[in-house]
Recover the amino acids of this structure.
């Protein structure tokens, strides 16, 4: 019976632009229903997630307006939803143009309604500072709606809690944030059949297309099911290495701040000495 209802909802008549056996209507419905509440830094250097110009071959900024891009596709009898917050630049210690970040959810059907079972947040994905996090939707109070996601200032890594933001090795900060008002969710389609006008998604300028694969392999789902609380989705060697890098990053930040303050103090002293000499040094 459950399989029949699932098929009825997923494969009912209607347009299926990306050919993944889920109609466009159902995809948009689940994307809207489970839209996360993104908490964005008030003073973020890039202001807010960007909308990119449709029809362009490479990511071309249209407006920094809070647009969220989505994806919905079938996985093991359920639906996986991805939410991409895309930025025109990363303002971390090593700045670079374009920044593709995301969170995702694994949905199952319960009595004819879609319900989130797991959530995943990506942070510094596929780097030594990878701090991907996952948890049961029930533990995040996000089974029937979207979850709260904190986005780090300037770096735009995603976290399942504000406190988790400080635990990676990227010197992330999620303080002084406010909830993002999302004007629209734009469905990107699938990697093999992107939505019309979305060719820029596959540009080599960023790894967005690579992020459009499933985030919930069976092994991760088993780990989440057997765990309590938030699970770190990273390799054991990175778990050991990250605290060391975090300490080093904190030291670098402290030295940078100290250097800035020292330069400021020296400049102030120089100005005072110059003023004193101008007033007391005998003129010829």
């Amino acid at each position: 019976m459950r399989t029949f209802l699932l098929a009825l909802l997923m494969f009912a008549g209607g347009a299926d632009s990306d050919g993944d056996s889920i109609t466009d209507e159902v995809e948009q419905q689940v994307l809207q229903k489970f839209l996360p509440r993104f908490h964005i830094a008030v003073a973020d250097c890039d202001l807010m997630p960007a909308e990119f110009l449709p029809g362009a071959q490479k990511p071309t900024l249209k407006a920094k307006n809070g647009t969220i891009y989505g994806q919905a596709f079938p996985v093991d009898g359920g639906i996986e939803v991805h939410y991409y917050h895309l930025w025109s630049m990363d303002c971390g210690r090593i700045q670079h143009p374009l920044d593709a970040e995301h969170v995702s959810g694994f949905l199952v059907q319960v009595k004819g309604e879609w319900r989130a079972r797991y959530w995943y947040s990506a942070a510094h994905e596929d780097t030594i500072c990878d701090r991907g996090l996952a948890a049961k939707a029930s533990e995040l109070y996000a089974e029937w709606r979207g979850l709260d996601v904190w986005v780090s200032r300037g770096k735009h890594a995603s976290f399942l809690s504000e406190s988790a933001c400080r635990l990676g090795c990227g010197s992330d900060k999620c303080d002084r944030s406010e909830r993002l008002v999302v004007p629209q969710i734009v469905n990107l389609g699938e990697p093999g059949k992107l939505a019309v006008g979305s060719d820029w998604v596959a540009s080599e300028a960023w790894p967005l297309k690579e992020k459009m694969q499933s985030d919930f392999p069976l092994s991760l789902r088993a780990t989440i099911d057997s765990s309590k609380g938030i699970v770190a989705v990273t390799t054991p060697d990175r778990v050991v290495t990250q605290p060391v890098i975090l300490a080093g990053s904190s030291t670098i930040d402290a030295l940078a701040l100290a250097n800035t303050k020292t330069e400021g103090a020296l400049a102030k002293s120089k100005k005072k000495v110059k003023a004193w000499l101008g007033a007391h040094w005998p003129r010829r």
Notes: The CA atoms of residues 55 and 197 lie 4 Å apart. DSSP finds four helices and 15 strands in the chain. Residues 1-8, 236-270 have pLDDT under 50 and may be disordered.
